[in-house]
Every structure is written in C-alpha cells, then in structure tokens.
Amino acid sequence: MVQIPISSDLSRLSSLQAQIIRRAVDVQLYAIASLILLVLILTPSLESHARGLYHASKFYEYVDIFNVRASGGVIDLHFGFHHLTTPYLTFIRVVQHSEGWKPFAALNAFHHGLMYAYFGGVEFTRPVLPWTGALQLVVGILVEAWVVRERLASGQGPLWPNVASGCILSAYLVLSTRELRLRAAQAKTEAEKRAAKEVVKED
What we know:
Layout: H1 8-41, H2 47-70, H3 77-96, H4 102-119, H5 129-154, H6 160-202
Helix pairs in contact: 1-2, 1-4, 2-3, 3-6, 4-5, 5-6
GO biological process, one term: fatty acid biosynthetic process
Membrane topology: Multi-pass membrane protein
GO molecular function, one term: fatty acid elongase activity
C-alpha cells in the first residue's frame, strides 16, 4: 500500500481547522444551553435546580478561556477577568446568598445565548450584544444596591455578598466600556488609514 506523505504545514492546517470546527460546535451548544437555562431561571418551580445549573454553567466559561487560546484566539482584559471570576461571583450570590439573583441571571443567560450564537457564526446577533451586555450589568448593579438598602433598613442579612457582587459587576462594566472604546478607536484608525491610501492612489 502506497502512503502519500503529508507535509507538516498541511497537517498543522488540518489540526487548526478541526479546532475551529470543534470551537464552533461548542459555542453553538453553549448558546442553546444558555437559552434553555433562561427558561429554567424564569420557571419558579425549578428555582433550586436553576440556581445550581446556572452556577455550574460558569465553569464552562472559565474553561472557555483555555478553549479560545487553543483555537488561536486572543484574550483581552475584560474577557479574561470576567470569565475567571464569574464562578466565584455565582457561588457567592446564587448558591450561598440568592435574594434578588434572578434579574441579572436571566439577562446574563439571554446575553450569553446571543453572544455564543455570534461566536458560532450567527452574525445578526452582533449589533445587540453591546446593549444586552451593558443592560445585564446595569440591572445587576441596581439590584445589588436595592438589596443592600433593604437589608440596611431591616437590619437583617449580611451585606458583604451584595457589596462584593456590586463591585465585581461594576468592574465588568468598566472593563466592557473600555473594550468597546478601544475597538471603536481601532476601527476609526483603520478607516483613516484606508482613506489615506485611497487619496494616495488618486494622486
């Protein structure tokens, strides 16, 4: 039997393509799982199960950092900080101290459903992602402030879980805003470079 030699470049290319395909399948499955989780979160009779599953889902996001790196992706500060800290956030605010957990969790699951669908190739979700991302964080911060105010008024319940959660969500919002501004500045610079090249061509 004759064996056809395969160059190392072709082998590496095939391996990279396989990783990209696996990545696309993974993110689409997580997008579907996020939307199913949204339904569970909004179903009162399944709250205890939804809390556990929501917390467990964040371990996928934690591991997803390594998946992105393995497929050749770049990890920015917002993505890295957010995905590395979220399992700790959900353990504190969803598993241990769950008062007021649903508004942020529902919006977060919805946002991740759209975001991971986009990562998997569903382009039409892209324009709304900055808005759904900001909305979930702003609502989460407001809920934490409301819970803190209610607990101060009643004198019951610990404040630290909600203060810690509010601080982490605020950090997410700051980093997300920073990332959007950096991308906008980069897009503007690239547009100016393209315009300058067109002027040179015309001359």
